[in-house]
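Run folding on both entries below.
>entry_1
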Amino acid sequence: MLSESQITAFMEDPDQSKPNAIHSTMGAKKYGFSAALVGGVTAYGWCAKTIIDALGQDWLSHGWADISFKRPIYPGDELVVRVDSGKKISVTKLTDGSDCFGGVLGLGDAPWLETLKRPTNFQVDRFEDRLPTLTLEDAPVGKSLRTLEVSLNSKIANLYCTNKLRESVEVFLGSEPIVHPAWIAEQPIHWLHHSYEYGPAIHTRSKIQHLVALRAEGPVRIAGICSEVYERKGHHYIVNDTALIDQKETVFAQIQHQAIFRVAKR
């Protein structure tokens, strides 16, 4: 075992209405879950210290993760995060050992990096008042979606860590922080919402490649391509390949997200 830690899952105001209803108590129960679902990116963010303890800080500047989300995490769940000698990460429930999510980590370029589609147009497309609804039939497979620009500075980076993650790792805090990997992983979700209305949604898998450590020194742009949509067991899935650039127009990360954008009711 390279590194291990424990955390109690938490969520601010789970009973409150959320933009993604699956992260609220009533919304999740409508789809057959027992409580509000903790976001996949948030739970992934709780693993950052354990990952850095195992692989070192170089992982933030040139490392990767391939993570699959298997079972829901609810507020109050006691979780065990493990990174083993084979660089496999697992997050299990302390009560029964059930797998919540896990995958493989690495340093350098991921073996799948060249399979990701890499967009080339980072010209910002402004938000429209009314967006189309995402459907299997009308999904823009093989096409670029609207490029999104998001603000980023040290205050935003620090607030994300302290309020959303309760993060204590010093490298992510202070006047010149490295931006948290969970913040980076979250941006393709906002990018998809920049082009389409959809939801409730559930994150199912991510391939994340860090190419340069991101500093909170200015706005970030996210561009990407819709790679695939499909249906499985009544759920509608989407797979998107995105690239993220910093204020110097350096690509600092490539991310492939897979999510259920239309959840089947059970």
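>entry_2
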Amino acid sequence: MKYYLLALSWIIYCVLHSWLISTSVTDFLQQRLGGAYRFYRLFYNIFSIITLLPVIIYSQSIKQEPFFIWPEYLLPLKYALLLTGIFLFVAGARHYSLSQFSGWAQIKEKTSSKLINETGVLSSTGILGVVRHPFYAGIFPLIWANDLDITTLITNVILSIYVLVGTLLEERKLVAEFGDAYLEYSKTVSMLFPLQWIKKKLGFIPA
């Protein structure tokens, strides 16, 4: 029963989190709130953190002894995954504005911008020339490079599905925002796993 409750808690959190940032909700709120909409991003982030805390606390309360512990001979792989995840987040952060992401810039500048970069221009430089969604891509190695018990396994599976769905929803927003430019960009840069980049490095695709 406790694992069903855990799964339900994560699913409710993920669905609510995605719904609140969906285009239909944000467009509706922007029309209704007018200038006050500039506070929404900050509210959304605070609400996401507050509602995440009970899920994490419950998850920790039912953790058991892991059924999988990374063996010593696989530790290099574990650390490589962790470093890859950290690198993707750090490299991705260079292309986004922390103040925009947090919502502080919208309040300070009295703007209702939904963008989280500073320029609003589609970029394919740096890590964005390797994968289109470095933050989402970085989540996978970080959550799976851990020892596994039932609680962690359930959490990781749900979060992995959530990230995949979230990435696809984000793709729709970016196509609506940048149009053909984003469609062309997506033909040359992979979404999460850098397959196109690897092919270019190996000479299978002209650089």
